[in-house]
Every structure is written in C-alpha cells, then in structure tokens.
C-alpha cells in the first residue's frame, strides 16, 4: 500500500512539474492583460496634459493649467504635454513622443480596437500644440515654455504654477535643427494617422511639416548652442542634429511620397549618419529608428538605394539578440535590457517597439535579419520584445509592475509633482512653491494615481527601492510610454508568441 501511495505521489509531482514548466513556457500575460495595459498606457497622457482640459477628461484629479502660456509674448502656446514630473513643456521630447505615438498607431492601430480613438486623441493633443508653435511666427519655431531651473526650484502641481512661463524659440539667427526636424517628423507622422479620418487636418499637418523641415535644413545649427542655459543638461542634443534631419526627411517622404524627399535621403544619407551604427534609440538619437523606418521601403518595395538601411537595421537588431556574432547589449540578471542608470526603461520601450516594427516589415516580405552567418527571424524579434514588455508589466525578479496602476504591486511614490501633491479637488487652496516640498519628502504614497505611467525602472541588478527622491528610477516620462503603446497594441493581437 505504501509503495502505491509513493508511486501516486511521484506521478503527482511529475505532473505538477510538467504543468509548472508549461506555465513558464507560456505567456505570463493574456490578451486581456495587454489590453488593460494598453488602455492605461494611453490614459497616462491625460495626466500629462497642459491647457484647458476637455469634458471627457478621464484623469479627473487634474485641472486646467498653463492657460496663459505664450500670452506675454503675444503668441498662443496653450496646450501640449508636460514631459515628465515637472511643469515644463520641452519641445524636443514632446515632438519625439508625438512621432512615436503616431508611429504606434500607424503600425499597430488595427490591434488597438476600442483604444484607437484614445490613442489618436493623445497624438492630436500634442499636434494641436506643435502646429501653434510652428506657425505663430514666420521662420520661427517655439520650442519650450518655462525655465526649468526656476521650475525645478519649486514642487507644485501644474494648476498652481506661479513661476515665470518664459517662452523660448529657435530662428534663422538662433537655429535649432534637431528640435525643428523632430517637430517636422512628428507632424508628418501624425498626418498619416489622420489621413482618412480628418483629411483637412492631415493636409495641414503635412504642409506644416514640410515648412518646418525646410527651416531646419536651411538654418542648420544646434539648439543646445542657441538655448544652452535652458535646454542643457535637461534635453541637450548630444547626438547633434544630423540624425533628426534624416529622420524628419524620412517621415515626410513616407507621408507624402514626394520624390524630392527621396532624393534628399539618397543624396544626404551618408552625410547625415546613415553610415554610422548606433545601438540606442531615444529622444536624442534617431539613427536606429530611421534605419528601421527606411528599411520598410527596401523590404516591401525593393526600393533602389535602400539596401543600406536594411543592412544597418540588421546590425542594430543583431546587437540585441543573445547568441549572434554581433551581440553587444547588456541585460540585467532578470533579463531587462540595460543602457543607463537614469530612466533606463525609455531605452527598453523604444527598443521593444523597434523590434516589433522591424518584425512586421520582415514578416511582410518573408525576410530575416542577417547576423553574420546566421539568420534571425521575425519570431525571434517578437520573442525578445515580448520579454521586455512582460518584464515591465511584472514578470521580473521583484514581481513589480513598473506601470503605475497595473498589477497588484507597482510604484507608490513616483517622482511627479501633480501626482504627489493633493489635487485641487481635495485641496482647493493654493499650495505654494516651497510648501510642496513636504509632499516630495513624505513617506506616504502619492495621493493621485497617475495610471499608466511607466517609471525609470530598476538598476542593473534588478533592484528598485520605492523612493520619490530617486528621480532616475522613479520619474515617468511621455517618451517612455509612447513606444510602449505600440508594443502593447501588437501583443494584444499576438499574446501567446513565445
């Protein structure tokens, strides 16, 4: 009898181990989980809105803010997004955010289902602002509202801002090619998003993109030189402006199919960085993203002169895939791509998006990435991207979701003024500049949950301490979320990819 019992017990253990291994092999998340994360990743942008909020505002703890932005300079710069946890409107990361949101809709909008409208609204909230910034004055682009040095001396919710709302611009005399070309890219990408649903708006976006790109190209120079005291070190353009010029031209070419932009890319590509491989993609450096974007023309249309972009895209992709001869990326022990100690998840979300966009292009052409003597398939890229997405959502050593409001365990003390200070509904009286620091230094969870916000993320050893003062790990940003919207949309339709 004992022998029979032991045999049965052993069979149960084997069955349990088999089931456990199957669970580990299968996706950590379902299509429903990815759908929830997608909805929340888009909702986050409502918490970052500046200006007069609409009647359908869902992040109800927020109120109107920045309603006089630009007025002292006789321009209307109301609207747009606060980029992160402060109350500054920085043009370069806002434009990049917009480009990536638009690209997410272009590539994966068909998988967004009932969230497509919200995603397009998130794009339009930014493009409405960027249009004003680009058309207020001829040969001028307004690129920032508020002095960050002054803004950062206060800890106050945007509804109470009493620091000066200085306005900064680039012009022929004080150029800013990187911010202007990124703005052109954003407007051009968005014109594709609205081409069918709002043709007149789409046309306006594209025509403005062309004008802004022409301005960026004719008056070459870095805004880090023209506006160094207010953009550096916050959003200094360390990569220069050549990458943005090629990126901007690429997006206008895709949106317009105008042969002059194709000629520009073919004539200037090698000068503007097409021959240089870089292994990160961010608000500052667009080289990897441009090559993946341009590779589509070669893969799907066999366009002459675009083979180089396929080759460089392969180099970028191969650098990320363990086991290839070109592998050079760093991953944490828990499997997270690691590029830097400050806001590392911005590189993770942008990389995951590029992996999936490139996988899409490869799938449509029946191709693969060439890594030395081996081939990497679209399925390999999807697997790698999915690991990064799942890590962010909670499949990691800490069992922590790095998206606020998703899962049972997520950051409670994010570095964000509006989220950490009581809302105007809970505390209607003004909370002055210095009075807000008590909330920065408080050990209590943020009273306003900034649903969908993805924070900077864990360190190189997968460690993460819930500390509001640690902005490197705890500050959310629009450019972290924007590419994640597209990655999640893909996974909504492909949840069980191994």
From TrEMBL:
InterPro entries named in the record: 6-hairpin_glycosidase_sf, 6hp_glycosidase-like_sf, Glyco_hydro_9, Glyco_hydro_9_Asp/Glu_AS, Glyco_hydro_9_His_AS
Domain Glycoside hydrolase family: from-to ranges: 34-488
Enzyme Commission (EC) number: 3.2.1.4
SUPFAM superfamilies, per the entry: Six-hairpin glycosidases (SSF48208)
Keyword Hydrolase: yes
Pfam families linked to this entry: Glyco_hydro_9
Reactions catalysed: Endohydrolysis of (1->4)-beta-D-glucosidic linkages in cellulose, lichenin and cereal beta-D-glucans
Top EC category: hydrolase
GO MF assignments: cellulase activity
Superkingdom to which the source organism belongs: Eukaryota
Active site: 415, 466, 475
GO BP terms: cellulose catabolic process
Signal peptide from the UniProt entry: 1-28
Annotated keywords: Carbohydrate metabolism, Cellulose degradation, Glycosidase, Hydrolase, Polysaccharide degradation, Signal
PANTHER family referenced in this protein's UniProt entry, alphabetically: ENDO-1,4-BETA-GLUCANASE
Recorded family membership: Belongs to the glycosyl hydrolase 9 (cellulase E) family.
Protein name: Endoglucanase
Species this chain originates from: Betula luminifera
């Amino acid at each position: 009898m004992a022998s029979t019992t032991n045999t049965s017990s052993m069979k149960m253990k084997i069955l349990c181990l088999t089931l456990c291994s199957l669970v580990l092999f299968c996706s950590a998340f379902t299509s429903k989980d990815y759908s929830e994360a997608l909805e929340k990743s888009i909702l986050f942008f409502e918490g970052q809105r500046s200006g007069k909020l609409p009647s359908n505002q869902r992040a109800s703890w927020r109120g109107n803010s920045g309603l006089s932005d630009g007025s002292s300079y006789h321009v209307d710069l109301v609207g747009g997004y606060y980029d992160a946890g402060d109350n500054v409107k920085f043009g370069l990361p806002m434009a990049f955010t917009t480009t990536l949101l638009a690209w997410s809709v272009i590539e994966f909008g068909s998988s967004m289902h009932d969230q497509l409208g919200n995603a397009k609204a998130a794009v339009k909230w930014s493009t409405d602002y960027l249009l004003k910034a680009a058309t207020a004055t001829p040969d001028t682009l307004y690129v920032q509202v508020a002095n960050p040095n002054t803004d950062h001396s206060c800890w106050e919710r945007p509804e109470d801002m009493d620091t000066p709302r200085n306005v900064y611009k680039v012009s022929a005399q004080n150029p800013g090619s990187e911010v202007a070309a990124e703005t052109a890219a954003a407007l051009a990408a968005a014109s594709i998003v609205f081409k069918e649903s709002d043709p007149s708006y789409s046309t306006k976006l594209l025509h403005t993109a062309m004008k802004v790109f022409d301005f960026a190209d004719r008056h070459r120079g870095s805004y880090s030189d023209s506006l160094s005291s207010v953009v550096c070190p916050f959003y200094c353009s360390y990569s220069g402006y050549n990458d943005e010029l090629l990126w901007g031209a690429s997006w206008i070419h895709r949106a317009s199919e105008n042969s002059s932009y194709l000629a520009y890319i073919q004539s200037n590509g090698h000068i503007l960085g097409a021959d240089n491989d870089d292994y990160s993609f961010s608000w500052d450096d667009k080289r990897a993203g441009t090559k993946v974007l341009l590779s589509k023309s070669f893969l799907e249309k066999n366009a002459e002169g675009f083979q180089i972009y396929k080759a460089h895209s392969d180099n970028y992709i191969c650098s990320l895939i363990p086991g290839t001869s070109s592998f050079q990326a760093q991953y944490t022990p828990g499997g997270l791509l690691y590029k830097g100690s400050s806001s590392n998840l911005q590189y993770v979300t942008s990389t995951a998006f590029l992996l999936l966009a490139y996988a899409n292009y490869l799938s449509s052409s029946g191709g693969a990435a060439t890594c030395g003597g081996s081939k990497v398939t679209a399925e390999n890229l999807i697997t790698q991207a999915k690991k990064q997405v799942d890590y962010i959502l909670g499949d990691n050593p800490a069992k922590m979701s790095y998206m606020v409001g998703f899962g049972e365990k997520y950051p409670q003390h994010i570095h964000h003024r509006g989220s950490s200070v009581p809302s105007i509904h809970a505390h209607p009286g003004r909370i002055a500049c210095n009075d807000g620091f008590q909330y920065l230094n408080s050990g209590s969870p943020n009273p306003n949950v900034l649903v969908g916000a993805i924070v900077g993320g864990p360190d190189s050893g997968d460690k993460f301490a819930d500390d509001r003062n640690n902005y490197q790990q705890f500050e959310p940003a629009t450019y972290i979320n924007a590419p994640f919207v597209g990655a999640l949309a893909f996974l909504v339709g492909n949840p069980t990819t191994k």
